[in-house]
Amino acid sequence: MPSPPRQPHRSSGARAPDVRSLADAVARAWHSTRNSASPEIALSTVAALALVAPPIGQISATAVLIAGLDTDQFREFLRRYWTIFVRARPDLLPAAWPLVAPWLGDNPADDATVDAARRVARVALDAGQLHLTGTLRRRDADVFGPLLVELRADGARLAAGQFYTPGPLADTLATVLLTNEIAPGQSVIDPALGTGGLFRAAAQALRARGLDPAGVLWVGGDIDAVAVACAAVNAVLWELGPQVVLGVGDTLAESWQTAAIAQRAEVLQIAGQLRAAAFAADVLGGVARLVDLATPPPAPDART
Ligand SMILES: C[S@@+](CC[C@H](N)C(=O)[O-])C[C@H]1O[C@@H](n2cnc3c(N)ncnc32)[C@H](O)[C@@H]1O
User: Fold this and answer.
1) Which domain holds residue 98?
2) Which protein residue's CA is at the shortest distance from atom 18 of ligand 1?
3) Is 283 contained in some domain?
């Protein structure tokens, strides 16, 4: 991380924001940039910030540090956090791809888009995002549902039927309908997943019963690839565990679960092979260095 900025940055606020005011602030910041890139840039920026786990007592200092990054440093910051995400959860990469692609894909974002993302980040940090997503409070919040709604034009939002279940309502539903229903080893399936709000509520209902959500198989699908990408990040933030299967498609018409399960298995197999290849390269590199050490240098008179 570079040294703190010379320009003082406003305090990031000690109180965690509610998701709606955070979404409002971020969406306004994004629209004010008039950047022609897709709103995935704003979602992806908030998601990368959400992956930051500041040390205890260092939330405000971390916010100041990030807010002071210049264009190249901020691009590197985003690339680094998305790399960490992909390394930690290769199984979620296909689902998360719309948010990962601007930073790790073949057509990386240009400087103007990175600057638009920086503006979004500064506003999110000013609003106190790290006090929400950088603490266990993140388990009680779906940052992306309201943000996705705010970022989209009204027409597109209505056409997609995207009004996500408010958190408290989802919590009540989960408590009333799911208490004593789900247990480790069972599955929770949502074929109209959105950003995953009902998974969050179900996970919290499990925790309230002293159960670990990581023991459950979470299967979700939605026709909206960007919403599913947000759900993939949420799965990590909400600590749903390693068994998360997410698919994109028309869940009324397609065998989306089978496709999503097959894709997940394939990606995990490729990731396993790549890890084995990287391990083999490390070992071979180590052997080569040992051979170099063990091989005596040629005698001076043998040199030409
Ligand atoms: C009202 S939202 C609910 C999201 C989430 N379950 C919640 O409670 O917050 C409905 C979701 O259904 C999705 N959807 C609508 N038609 C669909 C279809 N045919 N196949 C898959 N998803 C669909 C929309 O994209 C939207 O994300």
Assistant:
1) 19-160+167-257
2) 250
3) no
